[in-house]
Amino acid sequence: MSAVDRRKQVLDAASKSFALFGYKATTMEQVAKIANVGKGTIYTFFTNKDELFDEILLSAIMEMKRLAEQELRSDRDFFDNLYRVLDALLEFRSEHELFIKLSQEVRDIGTPKAHEGLTKVENGIVGYLQGIVEQAKSTGEIKPLDAQVVSFVMLKLYVALTTDFNQLHKPLSKEQIKEYMMVFLADGLKASS
Amino acid sequence: MSAVDRRKQVLDAASKSFALFGYKATTMEQVAKIANVGKGTIYTFFTNKDELFDEILLSAIMEMKRLAEQELRSDRDFFDNLYRVLDALLEFRSEHELFIKLSQEVRDIGTPKAHEGLTKVENGIVGYLQGIVEQAKSTGEIKPLDAQVVSFVMLKLYVALTTDFNQLHKPLSKEQIKEYMMVFLADGLKASS
DNA sequence: AACTGACCAAAATACAATTATGGTCATTCG
DNA sequence: CGAATGACCATAATTGTATTTTGGTCAGTT
Fold this sequence. Notes:
homodimer; Tetracycline Repressor, domain 2; DNA-binding; Arc Repressor Mutant, subunit A; mainly alpha; 193 residues
């Protein structure tokens, strides 16, 4: 059994445990047991619990990028691509066991590391969007504004419509969400005169 | 000393105490002492601590409405009015001792009642905006969309630009914020061809 | 040389004792 | 006589302490 296999064993075990129990309730012993490995072995691959967690988040972020990439179609315009990418990313985020568990953990006991992790994922998304926005800027499809601000707002807007809003009201349908996204991002509220 | 005066004494004392110490650290005895009344007297005007708190929040919300009203100018268009109203409201919210203290309290110890209170204020703002949006809808200045969703997004957008964004980056200037607000709300990102 | 698990200091938890607080009401005061 | 009061009480919050758990190490095993 090669070193690479063991590393993967640990990584898989940790993935499962973090997704199942969250950051805090995942113990290194637990991970070792699931991975069928001595606890010391984990430390030959990862310097500590944090780094192990980071590595798992990083691979989740890369997975998200892969998914987003799939949604990009050169035969569609920027806004259509944007909507499908955002949708894929947010759907992935809201269905992935790990993120669900981490969100609960933040809400219920406020584990700082869990919060940090979710922020890191969010930044990953914004960073990815930023690239798309930059490109749309260079092709002249959108106004020449700061791509960081624009992509940040995009994410916030999407989260506001999909998550924040239905904390207080009836959730919006996918079609409604798409409509509002397009209104605010593409054309604005102003009545076309 | 009339009953009305005593009620106001209590209200003023409670205002001071909530703003100075937050919800949790404000005790009824404390309020009584500041108001120069016996503790029992408080309960002749308010059934409990919660209701006392509610009354204070309500008066803050009404004060905000008053401020917003001042900003409305019939010689300006909807978007200009909107920006100035939002600005006044958010500035008030971010400078009012009570709200600063409650925000800290939520962040540091997560007092549910403090969180609830801030949400109530936020809902007050959205409710107020809703009225303005309805009116702009009826005059045909903006597209005929659900006013509740639109005003909710407006607040979220403003908070994203003024508060959320500078948790991670350099704060935006007032001019930049205004520019971005107008882009997303009025005309959208799409390059004017 | 790779791997392991007993071991340790430090952190988290559980529990008990103590204190503080919201709310009441018999008594006082104007 | 009715409005005002503060001692009083049940319960919630806090503090202090004993106990357990956990991240990380490293001498020894495979």
